[in-house]
Amino acid sequence: MVKNKRYLLVVAAMVLSVFSHDIASAGQLSQTGIRLGRLGISATANNDILVTFTLNTTPTSVAKIKATFPTGFTLTTGTPTVSTTGFPLTPASITAPPGALTAAVTGAGANAGGTIIVSGLTSASLNSTSLYGFIIPTGSIQNPASAAQYSITLESQNTSNVTIDTDTEPVYITGGTANADQVTVNASVAPNFSFSLSANSDTIPKVDTSTIQTSPGVTMTVGTNSPLGYTAYVKSANGSLTSTISPGTPIPTGTFDNAVDTIAAGTSKYGLVPATGTACTSCTGTITYNGEYAVASGTQAGSFNGTNFAAFVSRNGYTNADAITLKERIAVGASIGAASDYADTLTYIAAGNY
Q1: What is the chain's percent helix, strand, coil content, to nearest 5?
Q2: How far is the C-alpha of 331 from the C-alpha of 251, rounded, in Å?
C-alpha cells in the first residue's frame, strides 16, 4: 500500500512538472493593444477591431494570434477578411505581419464572449522588435450592454495551438447611449458676396456712319459662396445715348426681346457686349448669359430694358471671382447729329442666389 502511494505521488509530481514547465515557459507579450472601433454600450456599427502586438519568447515559433473576449461581448461566428492596411498613425509604426493571414471568429452566444484566431503568420520571418498589427472588420463583434472595464486576453500560439506568450488588455465600454463615444460637431458658414467695377467710366471711340465702334470696357468682378451662385443686372438711365449739344436724335438701344440685336454700320443702335474675362480659380457650375446678351460676333449687342433692370449674366454655383468685361457697341446713321457729349448712365448690380 505504501509503495502504491509513493508511486502515485511520483506520477503526480511528473505530471505537475510537465504542466508547470508549459506554464512557466509562457511569457508576456512585449506590447499589446486592442482598439475597438466603438466604445459605446451595445455598439456594433463601425466596430472594427485593431490588434497590435510585439512578440517576445521565440517569435519565430509563432503562427497564430488568439484574442479571447469575455462575457458581455457578442461575437458573430465566421471567417472575416483580415486587413493589414489603413493602420492609424501611432508613436510606433504598425507593421503588417508576414504571411497570408486568415481569421476564424467563434462566438459563444449572445453576450457570452468568444474568440478570434488569426492564423497564417510566417513564423520564420517574425521578430521581437516590430509592432505588428491587423484589423478585423466591422460585423464580428457587438459591445456589452453594460458599462464597465472588460479584459481581453491576447495570446501568441504555435502551429499546435500551444500558447507561447500571453497578455491581458483592458478596454472600457462607456454607458449612457450607444453614441456615448461620439461627439457631433456642428458648424455654420456665413454667406459672403463681393462685387466691384474696375472703373466708373467707359468711352467709345469716335464713330461715324461707316464704322461700328466698341468701347474698351469695364470689368465687373463678382464672388459668392452661395451654391446657387448669383445673377447680375443692368439698367440704362436713358435707354439711349443722348446729347445736350445735339438733342434732336439720340442713339437708341435695340429691341429688348431675349435675342441679341445686330448692329450695322450706317444704322443707329446702342447696346451692351458682356464677355467672360479671367476665369475663376475656385468655382462650380457655369456662367450663362441671358438670350438678349449672348453676344457671339463683332456685329451684335444686347439691348437695354428701358429704365428697368434686366438680368444679363448668372452663375449656378459658387465662385471666388468671376470677371465679366462690360463693353458698349454702337453704330450711327446719317440722322445722328455731330456732338462730343453723347452719354448714358448704366447701373450694374448683382445678388447672390441663396
Answers
A1: 10, 40, 50
A2: 8
Assessment of whether the complete model's pTM goes beyond 0.85:
no
H-helix or E-strand spanning residue 270: strand 269-276
What is the β-pairing status of strands 99-107 and 114-121?
antiparallel
The Cα–Cα gap between 260 and 301 comes to 6
Task: Tell me what pLDDT residue 179 has.
Answer: 61
Residues 6+ apart with CB under 8 A from 39: 143, 171, 172, 173, 174, 180, 181
Contact between 55 and 132 (Cβ < 8 Å): yes
Q: Band of the pLDDT at 24, cuts 50, 70, 90? A: very low
For residue 300, give Cα distances in angstroms to 138, 272, 330. Answer: 64, 9, 10
Element (H or E) spanning 21, and its range?
helix 2-25
Give the whole-angstrom CA distance, residue 274 versus residue 328: 8
Name the maximum alpha-carbon separation found in the chain. 146
Mean pLDDT of the chain, nearest integer:
92
123-152 tens-digit pLDDT: 999 999 999 999 999 999 999 999 999 999
Q: C-alpha angle 113/117/118, rounded to 5°?
A: 145
Does residue 201 register a pLDDT over 80?
A: yes
β-strands 99-107, 148-157 pairing: unpaired
Rg (CA), the chain: 41
Please tell me whether residue 152 adopts helix, strand or coil conformation. Answer: strand
